[in-house]
Each structure stands twice: as C-alpha cells, then as structure tokens.
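::Amino acid chain::
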Amino acid sequence: MTMSKSHAGRVAVITGAAGALGREFALALAAQGCDVAIADISAADHVVAEIEALGQRGYSEVCDLSDPGQIESFVSATLDKFGRCDILVNNAAYMPVIPFAELGLDQLRRFQAINVEAAFLLAKLLTPGMAERGYGRIVQIASSTTGTPMPGFLAYITTKMAGIGLTRSLAAEFGGRGILCNALSPGLTLTPESRKNLPAELFESVCERQLIKRNELPSDLVGALLFLTSEGCGFVSGQTINCDGGVQF
C-alpha cells in the first residue's frame, strides 16, 4: 500500500540549506512531497540534486541574506518557477563568536541583517500569497542559547531573541488568515561546522545537562519541523518549541 505524503503539493522556501540542519530540513520536506527553493550564501546545487532524486522539484540561488536586493531577486525567481510558497523556514544564521569588548556596531548590524531582517523581508514578500490562499506555515529556527547566555554570544543571542519576537508578532498579524508562525529551538547540535568551531568540552557539558544523554544531531529536529509545517499543526501558532534533549538550565 502506498503511503500518502504529508506535505504533497506544497512549496517550501528554506534559507541556509546548503548543509547541516537546512539540508536535513530540505530533504525531509521533499521526502514528504514538497518542492523546495533554497537561498544560501554557499551553492546548494548538490542539495537540489538530492531533492530531485526524491521526485520533487528543487531550486537554489546563492544569496547574501544581508542584501535585500538579493532576497527580492531570489523570491521573484522562486515564484516564477513554482508559482507560490506555502512554507517558509528561516534557518540561516550568522553566528561567529565575538567577545563583547571586540564587538562593533557594524558587526552587530550584520547579525541583525541576516538573523532578523532577512526573515522579516521574506515574510513581507511571501505572506501576501499565503494569505490569499488562506494557508501558510512560517518556522523560525531559534536557539537554546537564549536560555543559557554565554560570553561571546551577545550578538547571536540578541538577534535570536528578536527572531522569536518577530515570530510571535507575525502569528498575531496572520492568525485570522490561515498563516501559522512558530519558532523551533534546537539545543547544541553536532554538525561539521559546530564540531570545528566549538570545544569538545562544551558538547560534553551540554550533554550532561540533557535528559537525553547524547549529542543532538540535525536529524533529531526533523520530526518537529515536519509537524510545524504540516496541516496537522492547524491550531499551534506563536509558540517556541524546544527540541533540545530536555536540557536543564
């Protein structure tokens, strides 16, 4: 018996899906019947090939999300190709570790541009079509660091908190028009980039504070993402869903 796909016929836009979490999200959505468009600072042609291997249409564009013009160009090309967008996943994040004493205003503004303003502009460009059709799902990828501030993460945490505020406010704006907006908050996730940039001791200490005693992997977030972008999520909006192994702050 053929199993139906939960997201059949939908179109998803995902930022930062050339690797790690975003790639996992893109492939999971494609496996459930979504066509997927990707905006990333790095080329994502390999992910598009994987999406197409799953029988769905894919599109990617190298896009600096701090540049509104590039975002507008990406959205225009996506709508030309797919005709609409039903799901927006704001996954891309700018997150270098910079001590407060070394953090300049220009650097803070780049965090703001990529982590908050890009999500705002994508919602601005894509929600009119969602509202017209009476269906939309927006998921903002948040961070467990908002509950456990650490030195060097001031700009990242500040903008991740702003992203949660943006999500809750969008939920209020669009709740009567079928567009549901939620944040998904991962814990410390083991990826090639995080393994390279963060000390092993940090992974060990976080693991000790989790109820689930192992490192979080990108695949651990897929179930929550699929729920928040599904028709079954019809009465959940304005929420932040923690998917962090039950970390105890």
Notes: DSSP finds eight helices and seven strands in the chain. The chain has a mean pLDDT of 94. Helices lie at 20-31, 45-53, 68-82, 105-133, 154-174, 192-197, 200-209, 222-228.
